């Protein structure tokens, strides 16, 4: 077995519109190697492997597969070149059987062109046995659990003689005991001389699987080394960079913490959407004081977003545990109760779950406050509504052609302000903010920071999720880090640094051990 | 449309008030349906059952007043309640069982039509009421029938048109002044956003379909009065005309925007189209084809405006 790399990537540049996201990345994978790609959110890992999968056709640089220079513009190019990507959204067709899926696109044909089903089934049965999967080749794929489907995809790729296997966060949807068979398969791939690219931000996985690690930061490769050469602390430092630790902005004087916390949470658990025996949030407890900003940090799959949705009552029966708002118990069952009691949620997706695009700014902003702005018979007090919304728009410096214009005509930053205004109009006591500054311009961000400082000065408590580390550290009084559904660490504001937070988010040690 | 009418004025006939008055009267029943349909379409739904509810209402109204001699003051609310109740059932199925509105109301359309036939015994209910022993006797047509079919202002404006106008007004108040109206737009515009804003989704949807059923019942009573009978076969296909009127007016089926004023424009457009064609003695086929063409043009025009 030669040691020539299976794939090499040289000088890879990729831009989305005017924004360059990969600035000349070099990367290679050798036979029989598991090469882990590490980096923060947005560092460019997914973009890089999408280039390898043939998803993009507008990138520059050189890619070779087994020594041959290739131009990967279509997913088919990648498959033909022997590159197999095991997606999170698996590419199996749930309603078709195992056998049919395995041979999709390369059916065994008889002399007259008909499909030879028995042969396919026999072949499929052999593959299943080789993968140690106890399923019949005739079973519809939908009946297989996710972990088995993943293994099946690996099997299919092997059947296509793939030489490189790409895994992007494969374990984020798996349970503890499902992970082992996957790792065993990966060892098997190594044994057969295939190459594996593995993206994860779980420390334990990196150090268990990696033969080499390449760190990406802000679209550049900042080092390739073996796990021995790159211990966890150094790994995190490379991921985060030698930037100055973000200092906390001098906040306005916070009001004295009254004895009663604004929000108290105990043993919060959120069941997985499809499989109630698994939890995406497990045993989370914390308190949030009046006028406090608690930052909730976590990487993909950490469950942070689900904590917010559960507390708001948006997840219904999936949420269990105890919570109290201002001392009184909170049922966690319905948004109606939350809004009525002054608990408001801002989701991370203003377009999908936040704003109604054709409704006017005024109508969007007043949507959660209508019971307050109408009489018992349902007649809306339009003047009161317009005044209240106009005042908020002025405070927020919301720039709109007119408040009666449909909200989709506003810029991203102003749309976000409108969405936030909806959460502030009912005079809340606690705000649950999920990525409040995502996708907006710098000016709007600054406005929102200022607004937040004003809110906490008035005693409003904020539970904040943001994936921008500087923002998190600058705004939060305390930081709670989540990893795989549990609280991994807690830091007081002054103690929190980017490295510590990231290390905890990846499952390393720091604060409370995972 | 009015401009076109002036052009194709069939030798001056277009300029007589009687023509407009007739057009309004003919279109009123459809217009009432369209007003209710507007509400449902704004929630990003659709109500295919309005024609059948209309028939059921017509038949029920006739059945209650003619053979059974109920006074109109009791019969009318009873029929309206029935229409609203059927609508509420549709709404509940859409909201709680999460079945698509198209399918729910399609089923209701078939069901209500069947129910109409049950109530009527399969025949039209007229003032020839079967008596004991297989005989028939004539019952005086209750005054309410004449009343509804009446024209006031010296025959210049029909009551049915006034009923239509009232329905449009009520719908307008609902959509623009009431909290429920806001909820309707929110549910159609972004249902998840509405849910997270504590909008009562299920109740809003039930109300929307109940309102549509209620208006369909109103239309059914008017229909019975105008036809002077309760005919279980009446109104077939009316739901499509109602939908066409809403769409031509400018309310999109995707929901979240639109208004009953726009629907009114749609109603008048189709009304005038029909009238102009009939004044010019154009064949039925032409009307159908032109209506189809106008629907497409209207949608493209609105999309162009939206860009």
Brief summary of the model shown:
The complex is a heterodimer of chains A (514) and B (307). Chain A is of the alpha/beta class and 514 residues long.
Under CATH, the homologous superfamily of the largest domain in chain A reads P-loop containing nucleotide triphosphate hydrolases
What is the CATH topology classification name of chain B? ABC transporter involved in vitamin B12 uptake, BtuC
The name of the CATH architecture of the largest domain in chain A is: 3-Layer(aba) Sandwich
* Biggest pleated sheet of chain B: 2 strands, antiparallel
Q: Top keywords for this entry?
A:
heterodimer, A: 514 residues, alpha/beta, Rossmann fold, 32% helix, disordered C terminus, B: 307 residues, mainly alpha, two-stranded antiparallel sheet, 71% helix, globular
Report on the structure:
The complex is a heterodimer of chains A (514) and B (307). With 514 residues, chain A is α/β, with parallel strands linked by helices. Chain A has four domains: 1-82 and 163-241, Rossmann fold; 91-161, no CATH class; 263-342 and 428-514, Rossmann fold (3-Layer(aba) Sandwich); 357-427, no CATH class. Helices cover 32% and strands 24% of the residues of chain A. Chain A is built from 17 helices and 20 strands. In chain A, the strands form four sheets. In chain A, strands 6-7-8-3-9-10 form a six-stranded mixed β-sheet, sandwiched between helices. In chain A, helix 8 (232-240) packs across helix 17. The radius of gyration of chain A is 26 Å and the shape is globular. Chain A starts with 6 loop residues before the first strand and ends in a 9-residue tail after the last helix. The relative contact order of chain A is 0.10. The two termini of chain B are 25 Å apart. Chain B has one domain: ABC transporter involved in vitamin B12 uptake, BtuC, CATH 1.10.3470. Helix content of chain B is 71%, strand content 3%. In chain B, helix 2 (17-42) packs antiparallel against helix 12 (260-279). Chain B has 307 residues and is mainly α. Chain B has helices at 2-7, 17-42, 50-65, 72-96, 101-120, 143-148, 159-177, 179-189, 191-196, 201-227, 238-249, 260-279, 284-306; strands at residues 128-130, 136-138, 151-152, 157-158. Chain B is built from 13 helices and four strands. Chains A and B meet through helix 10 and helix 11 of A and helix 8 and helix 9 of B.
């Amino acid at each position: 077995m030669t040691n020539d790399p299976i794939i090499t990537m040289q000088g890879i540049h990729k831009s989305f519109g005017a924004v360059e996201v990969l600035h000349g990345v070099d990367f290679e994978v050798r036979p029989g190697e598991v090469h882990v790609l590490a980096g923060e959110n947005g560092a460019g890992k997914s973009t890089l492997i999408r280039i390898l999968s043939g998803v993009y056709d507008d990138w520059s640089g050189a890619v070779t597969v087994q020594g041959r220079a290739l131009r990967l513009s279509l997913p088919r190019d990648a498959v033909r070149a022997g590159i197999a990507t095991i997606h999170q959204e698996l590419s199996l067709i749930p309603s078709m059987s195992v056998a049919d899926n395995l041979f999709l696109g390369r059916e065994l044909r008889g002399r007259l062109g008909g499909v030879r089903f028995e042969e396919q089934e026999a072949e499929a049965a052999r593959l299943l046995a080789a993968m140690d999967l106890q399923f019949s080749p005739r079973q519809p794929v939908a009946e297989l659990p996710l972990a088995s489907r993943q293994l099946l995809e690996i099997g299919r790729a092997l059947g296509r003689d793939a030489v490189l296997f790409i895994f992007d966060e494969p374990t984020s949807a798996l349970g503890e005991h499902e992970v082992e068979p996957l790792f065993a398969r990966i060892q098997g791939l190594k044994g057969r001389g295939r190459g594996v690219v593995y993206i994860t931000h779980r420390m334990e996985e990196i150090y268990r699987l990696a033969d080499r690690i390449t760190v990406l930061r802000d679209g550049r490769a900042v080092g390739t080394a073996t796990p021995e050469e790159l211990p966890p602390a150094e790994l995190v430092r490379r991921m985060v960079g030698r930037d100055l630790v973000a200092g906390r902005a001098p906040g306005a004087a916070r009001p004295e913490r009254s004895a009663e916390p604004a929000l108290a949470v105990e043993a919060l658990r959120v069941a997985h959407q499809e499989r109630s025996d698994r939890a995406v949030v497990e045993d989370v407890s914390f308190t949030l004081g009046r006028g406090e900003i608690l930052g909730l940090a976590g990487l993909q799959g950490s469950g942070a977003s689900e904590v917010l949705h559960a507390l708001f009552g948006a997840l219904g029966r999936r949420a269990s545990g105890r919570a109290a708002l201002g001392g009184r118990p909170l049922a966690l069952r319905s948004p109606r109760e939350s809004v009525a009691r002054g608990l408001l949620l801002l989701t991370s997706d203003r377009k999908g779950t936040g704003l109604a695009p054709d409704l006017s700014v005024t109508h969007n902003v007043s949507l959660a406050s209508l019971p307050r702005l109408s009489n018992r018979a349902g007649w809306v007090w339009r003047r009161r509504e317009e005044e209240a919304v106009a005042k908020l728009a002025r405070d927020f410096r919301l720039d709109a052609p007119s408040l009666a214009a449909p909200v989709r005509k506003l810029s991203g930053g102003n749309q976000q302000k409108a969405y936030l205004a909806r959460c502030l109009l009912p005079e809340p006591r606690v705000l649950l903010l999920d990525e409040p500054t995502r996708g907006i311009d710098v000016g709007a961000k600054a406005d929102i920071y200022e607004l937040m400082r004003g809110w906490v000065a008035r005693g409003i408590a904020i539970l904040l999720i943001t994936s921008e580390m500087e923002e998190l550290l600058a705004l939060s009084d305390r930081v709670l880090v989540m990893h795989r559904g549990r609280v991994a660490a807690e830091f007081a504001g002054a103690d929190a640094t980017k490295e510590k937070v990231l290390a905890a988010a990846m499952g390393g040690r720091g604060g409370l051990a995972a | 449309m009015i401009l076109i009418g002036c052009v194709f004025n069939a030798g001056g006939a277009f300029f007589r008030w009687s023509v407009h008055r007739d057009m309004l009267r003919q279109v009123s029943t459809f217009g009432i349906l369209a007003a209710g349909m507007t509400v449902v379409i704004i929630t990003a739904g659709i109500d295919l059952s309005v024609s059948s509810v209309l028939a059921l209402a017509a038949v029920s109204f006739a059945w209650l007043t003619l053979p059974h001699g109920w006074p109109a003051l009791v019969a009318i609310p009873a029929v309206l309640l029935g229409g609203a109740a059927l609508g509420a059932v549709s709404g509940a199925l859409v909201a709680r069982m999460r079945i698509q509105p198209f399918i729910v109301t399609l089923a209701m359309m078939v069901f209500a039509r069947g129910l109409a036939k049950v109530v009527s015994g399969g025949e039209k209910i007229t003032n020839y009421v079967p008596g004991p022993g297989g005989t028939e006797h004539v019952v005086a047509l209750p005054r309410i029938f004449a009343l509804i079919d009446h024209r006031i202002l010296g025959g210049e404006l029909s009551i049915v048109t006034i009923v239509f106008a009232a329905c449009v007004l009520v719908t307008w108040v609902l959509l623009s002044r009431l909290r429920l109206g806001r909820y309707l737009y929110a549910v159609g515009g972004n249902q998840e956003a509405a849910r997270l804003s504590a909008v009562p989704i299920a109740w809003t949807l039930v109300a929307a379909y109940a309102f549509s059923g209620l208006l369909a019942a109103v239309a059914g009573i008017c229909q019975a009065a105008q036809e002077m009978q309760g005919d279980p076969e009446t109104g077939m296909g009316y739901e499509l005309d109602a939908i066409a009127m809403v769409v031509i007016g400018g309310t999109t089926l995707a929901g979240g925007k639109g208004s009953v004023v726009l629907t009114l424009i749609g109603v008048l457009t189709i009304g005038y189209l029909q009238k102009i064609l009939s004044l010019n003695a154009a064949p039925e086929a032409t009307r159908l084809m032109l209506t189809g063409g106008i629907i497409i043009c209207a949608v493209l025009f609105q999309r162009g405006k939206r860009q």
